[in-house]
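Folds abound. Consider this:
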Amino acid sequence: MTTQPPAEQRVAIVTGGSRGIGRQVAQRLAADGFAVVVGYAGNQDAAEDVVRTIEAAGGSAVAARADVADETEVAAVFDLAEATYGGVDAVVHAAGRMPLSPVADLDLGELDSLYRTNIRGTFVVDQQAARRARPGGALVNFSTSVLGLAFPGYGAYAASKGAVEALTLILAREMRGRDVTVNAVAPGPTATELFLDGKDEETVARLAAQPPLERLGTPEDIASVVSFLVSPAGHWVNGQVLRANGGIV
């Protein structure tokens, strides 16, 4: 753990911060000057590697384990942020699960696990953010452009992210008077380990050709969008779902 940062330093919690988009978001926000709490579910080594990377670049970070669907564990992550850094200004909820299956074949136990993480987990994290974010702060949830693209096999995942979008838009209105923005980012196909797993080269090439920009997104692309939303420059954007997908209709 690094030394106590200056009182004026902004503080971010990033769930799912040990890999993929969440890892890149954590590193980007640290580069932007945030002290970062790197949330993770089980891979402590990966989370601590993110912390070391941030610290090596001159930033301040600490890792915190929590099941995002467990309200006690999530509250403890916010407690840690407040005890270590003095408060919470940005919450980026990047944790999630993405099992793929045709609707007809999906095991309902898998559906329950997916919804526990993606829906209940989002609600639990958002609830703590709504209670604790300081004025001028921001909450960013993650949805998916699959809601519009309707790819076969993504039924359960897309349904869970539909719930995330609804919660995001309602919470933005419930935060009236708090000076805290609530938005969601909905990436298109993005070159992460989670997305590429199980896809052959032909499938990846076909997906990369879909946007007018003719490539997959990168975690850095998405982190840049998040960086804008939690910055003062992005504070007039509120109650929105930003489809960061290179122009896929």
Summary: The chain has a mean pLDDT of 94. The longest helix spans residues 108-132. Residues 11 and 98 are 28 Å apart (CA to CA). The chain is about 45% helix and 15% strand.
